[in-house]
From TrEMBL:
The lineage of its organism: Bacteria, Pseudomonadati, Pseudomonadota, Gammaproteobacteria, Enterobacterales. InterPro entries: BhsA/McbA_stress_biofilm_assoc, Dodecin-like, Stress_YhcN-like, YdgH-like_sf, YdgH/BhsA/McbA-like_dom. Residues 35-88 form the YdgH/BhsA/McbA-like domain. The keyword Signal applies. This is YdgH/BhsA/McbA-like domain-containing protein. It comes from Trabulsiella guamensis ATCC 49490. Keywords: Signal.
Length: 88
C-alpha cells in the first residue's frame, strides 16, 4: 500500500513539474513497451521529499543518456530509495 502511494505521488509530481524542455521523462508500463531498455538506476536519500526522488532520477537518467525512465520500485520512511528502468 505504501509503495502504491509513493508511486502515485511521484506520478502526480511528475505531471505537475514536467517541463516542455525536459530531456528525460517518466513513462508508464504501457508507454515503455514501445521503447528500448538500456539498464537500471537506483537513487536513495535520507530525510527529503518524494519530489527530490524524481529530481534525482531525472538527473541520473540524463547522465546515463536515457530519453525516458520507468519507476519499478520505490519505498520511503525516514529515508527513501527508488529504482528505475532506463530507455533509449
Amino acid at each position: 500500500m505504501k509503495r502504491a502511494m509513493i508511486i502515485a505521488s511521484l506520478g502526480l509530481a511528475s505531471v505537475l513539474s514536467f517541463g516542455a524542455s525536459a530531456a528525460v521523462h517518466q513513462v508508464n508500463a504501457e508507454q515503455a513497451r514501445n521503447l528500448q531498455p538500456m539498464g537500471t538506476i537506483s537513487v536513495a536519500q535520507i530525510g527529503s521529499a518524494p519530489m527530490d526522488m524524481r529530481q534525482a532520477l531525472d538527473a541520473k537518467a540524463e547522465k546515463e543518456g536515457a530519453s525516458a525512465y520507468r519507476i519499478i520500485e520505490a519505498r520511503t520512511d525516514a529515508s527513501w530509495h527508488a529504482t528505475a528502468e532506463l530507455y533509449k
